[in-house]
Amino acid sequence: ISGYSLVIQARDSGTPPLSSSVTVNVDISDVNDNSPVFTPANYTAVIQENKPVGTSILQLVVTDKDSFHNGPPFTFTILTGNEEEEFTLDPHGVLRSAVIFKHMVSTEYVLCVQAKDSGKPQQVSHTYVQVRVIEESIHKPTAIPLEIFIVTMEDDFPGGVIGKIHATDQDVYDVLTYTLKSEQKSLFKVNSHDGKIIALGGLDNGKYVLNVSVSDGRFQVPIDVVVHVEQLLQEMLQNTVTVRFENVSPEDFVGLHMHGFRRTLRNAVLSQKQDSLHIISIQPVAGSSQLDMLFAVQMHSGGFYKPAYLIQKLTNARRHLENVIRISAILEKNCSGLDCQEQHCEQSLSIDSHSLMTYSTARISFVCPRFYRNVRCMC
Question: Per the database record, which ranges form the Cadherin domain (predicted)?
Answer without folding.
Answer: 4-38, 39-143, 154-253
